[in-house]
């Protein structure tokens, strides 16, 4: 496995596959999940929604309010819908059990891709392994 800026290159014996990792964070939990827990240190941070991504990518996002897609993420997706392959949504089961990580469901419904995982705060080691495997499989 080799990492380049804003993308993860996974090298198998027969193929070379590139998947960019893009994320939005408000409280820092999604940042910590992506960069520290999963090790995607070169992931691209969505700051204001105007960012552009070339190629395929996986989106990590928090859930806003009561199950809403954050505005900055919605703006980003309007400009980058074509490359979206997967979504990992974070949330808090303690604070928002009824709408836990609902942004992921809404993004997949409205913009496409597959829902890879819904993660409580920064997730567990089991969540991390599932996410990494799913990204490789895309």
TrEMBL record:
GO molecular function: FMN binding
Protein name (Swiss-Prot/TrEMBL): Ribonucleotide reductase stimulatory protein
Organism: Solobacterium moorei F0204
Gene (name only): nrdI
């Amino acid at each position: 496995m080799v990492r380049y800026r804003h993308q993860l290159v996974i090298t198998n014996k027969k193929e070379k596959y590139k998947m960019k990792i893009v994320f939005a964070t408000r409280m820092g939990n999604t940042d910590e999940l992506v960069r520290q827990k999963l090790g995607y240190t070169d992931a691209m941070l969505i700051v204001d929604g105007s960012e552009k991504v070339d190629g395929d990518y996986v989106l990590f996002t928090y859930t806003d309010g009561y199950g809403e897609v954050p505005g900055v993420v919605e703006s980003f997706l309007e400009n980058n819908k074509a490359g979206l392959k997967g979504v990992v949504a974070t949330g808090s089961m303690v604070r928002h059990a009824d709408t836990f990580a609902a942004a992921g469901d809404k993004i997949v419904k409205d913009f496409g891709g597959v829902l890879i995982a819904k993660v409580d705060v920064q997730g567990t080691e089991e969540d991390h392994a599932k996410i990494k495997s799913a990204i490789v499989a895309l």
